[in-house]
């Protein structure tokens, strides 16, 4: 059973066509890396999958439940808000800029959703929060505020926070792009651990090394379309498309 | 010195009137300002437009004129507001307009990522506003709010225009009667005392909120 199925997604911002018919199927336990030049629509695709953006056309299913599908007029029609919210809870999201809540301590950042959204008791929420902090190696920062943490630590907290609702899929939008190079390692390490636990993951990234090592499948996007996809070896080492080759050339050159 | 003491009873009485205006206006104008600031950003356009018009009207005309309107203006069309009521209505509506603008810009200064993070965690709009956005807004708007509160201390003197016996009017009456300026000097000391307290209070509040960035 596919964890997530997106079919022929179209998305425009005004007149700008950002997604021009993208289809993506994600199986349980799969780790998918999405690469591609800036502006190719990678973030928009992720954001459409958990309805931070609404799609214009296409179909999205989460664990065989329909979130949106084309209506009789050809435009996407979304399901009931209540069902959508339930489906969205199955997806964790990690942003490029962490987006931690600066006025809440690390522990409070993690307890917020379980308490407010799932109605969990404070004691249990705190227990879960502490377990997750331990998992990302930041137990000792539980009572600190985000500004007291390094970028890498903040992103690890953000990952732990996304895990508090026990999602079936984790989406990462360039999780290391805002970090100093020496801090990317600790974040990638946490993500690698998640992959080893068979978490289903969709990762937009410029970390070619990480994609090669961790991803079951690599997708290359350009100009609102999936240009090429396959195993890391196929796409990263033996790309067939010219655009993939030239993109990889510039990315590898840049390091 | 004896002369100063003879002035005190009526000055202190005026001062309590000033304090009363000050606190009542704050108690109503602050929450109203928050609500109006949020309404100003409503996706329901007519509400947002109405608030824009409101802010323009109440910030765009002198408070003194508004005071005259609520007291004499309404009286002229046969709707009599009590003197004190006219003062409260005029001040609350006027200050709410200023505060609404402060809260609006404060809300708009919060990063879009904060809303999105709350959204993907499943918080609804109300929770996002009360738990995530407004607490951060309150911290950011504290300095401009402090300015407005200091302005309010001084603006209370405007109510002399409808003959309400607050601090500055008490001073004026004595100054005219006794033909000297000492009552005004005493009034100035009272105002300075009040603004000093407000200033210290906001300093304390800002330091309280300094636990995060
Ligand atoms: N909210 C938005 N409004 C208008 N244009 C947008 C918006 N978000 C993204 N875009 C545009 O869509 C295109 C794809 O953006 P994005 O999905 O962020 O690309 P990527 O993540 O691959 O760099 C870009 O041209 C970008 O400017
Ligand atoms: Mg992007």
Structure description:
The complex is a heterodimer of chains A (255) and B (213). With 255 residues, chain A is an alpha/beta fold. Chain A is 37% helix and 27% strand. Chain A has nine helices and eleven strands. Chain A has helices spanning 42-49, 81-88, 106-116, 122-135, 151-163, 181-196, 208-214, 232-237, 242-253, and strands at 2-13, 16-27, 31-35, 57-62, 65-70, 76-78, 91-94, 169-173, 200-204, 217-222, 225-230. In chain A, the strands form two sheets. Chain A has a six-stranded mixed beta sheet with strand order 7-8-9-3-10-11, sandwiched between helices. Chain A has a five-stranded antiparallel beta sheet with strand order 2-1-4-5-6. In chain A, α3 crosses α4 (122-135) and α4 crosses α5. Chain A is globular and about 50 Å long. The model of chain A has no long low-confidence stretch (mean pLDDT 95). Chain B has 213 residues and is mainly alpha-helical. Chain B has a domain at 20-166: Orthogonal Bundle (MetI-like fold), CATH 1.10.3720. Chain B has eight helices and no strands. In chain B, α1 (2-40) packs across α4 (83-108) and α5 (112-120) packs antiparallel against α6. The longest helix of chain B has 39 residues, at 2-40. Chain B is flat and about 70 Å long. In chain B, 31% of the residues are buried. At the A-B interface, β7 and α3 of A face α5 and α6 of B. Residues 13, 16, 18, 36, 38-44 of chain A line the site of adenosine-5'-diphosphate.
Q: Greatest contact pair?
A: A-B, 26 and 20 residues
Strand content of chain B: under 5%
- The value of Rg of chain B in angstroms is 21 Å
Structural class of chain B: mainly alpha
Unreliable stretches of chain A (pLDDT < 50, length at least 5) are none
| Overall average pLDDT of chain B | 93
- What fraction, in percent, of the residue positions of chain B are helical? over 70%
- CATH topology grouping of the domain at 20-166 in chain B: MetI-like fold
Low-confidence stretches of chain B: none
User: What would you report as the Rg of chain A, rounded to the nearest angstrom?
Assistant: 18 Å
Question: What's the end-to-end separation of chain A, in Å?
Answer: 39 Å
Q: Can you count the beta strands of chain A?
A: 11
Strand order of the largest sheet of chain A: 7-8-9-3-10-11
Shape of chain A: globular
CATH homologous superfamily classification of the domain at 20-166 in chain B: MetI-like
Q: CATH class of the domain at 20-166 in chain B, please?
A: Mainly Alpha
Report how far the terminal alpha carbons of chain B are from each other.
Answer: 50 Å
Task: State the order of secondary-structure elements of chain A, H for helix, E for strand.
Answer: EEEHEEEHEHHHEHEHEEHH
Assembly state of the chains shown = heterodimer
Counting helices, strands and paired strands, the structural category of chain A is: alpha/beta
